[in-house]
TrEMBL record:
Pfam families: PIN. Toxic component of a toxin-antitoxin (TA) system. An RNase. Its cofactor is Mg(2+). This is Ribonuclease VapC. Mg(2+) binds at residues 11, 103. It is an enzyme of class 3 (hydrolase). It comes from Syntrophobacter fumaroxidans (strain DSM 10017 / MPOB). The gene is vapC. One of its GO terms (molecular function) is hydrolase activity. Keywords: Hydrolase, Magnesium, Metal-binding, Nuclease, Toxin, Toxin-antitoxin system. HAMAP family: VapC_Nob1.
Length: 136
């Protein structure tokens, strides 16, 4: 990785937009392509991937959710485990800001990785002063 390589952390909102080919999906696809080509470092916290999994399971069933995760795992997106450092950072964000706990994991991961959060979720306006947001 070069020092100037862009780093992004995907929020579940962005992943769902991509999966459902909704507004913003094109930008997510561009970032995924750039990650595949080694021009962008992309990651997702496993908490947020779990969020996508349960939403997909509710809407489309367990098999569809499993297929999506299998397909997503082939992409050049690093899965970030919820280490104690990230849990602690997410808890601090939750204590200070009106964000969902899952959203706090995206923000905490981005802060730890010096990455932008890729999202279209307006809840992130509450932490724009703390973490860079790439709006889709």
């Amino acid at each position: 990785m070069t020092p100037l390589m862009k780093s992004v952390t995907f929020d579940s909102h962005a992943i769902m937009k991509f999966a459902q080919d909704e507004a913003g999906a094109d930008r997510v696809e561009e970032l995924l392509r750039a990650a595949e080509e080694g021009r962008v470092r992309a990651c997702v916290n496993e908490i947020n991937l779990g969020e996508v999994y349960y939403i997909t399971m509710r809407r489309l069933g367990t098999e569809s959710a499993r297929r999506f995760l299998e397909q997503f795992s082939t992409l050049a997106v690093e899965r970030v485990a919820a280490s104690w450092e990230i849990i602690e950072s997410a808890a601090e964000l939750k204590a200070r800001h009106a964000l969902s706990y899952a959203d706090c994991f995206v923000a905490a991961t981005a802060l730890r990785r010096q990455a932008s959060v890729v999202t279209g979720d307006p809840e992130f306006k509450k932490v724009e002063h703390l973490v860079q947001i790439e709006w889709i």
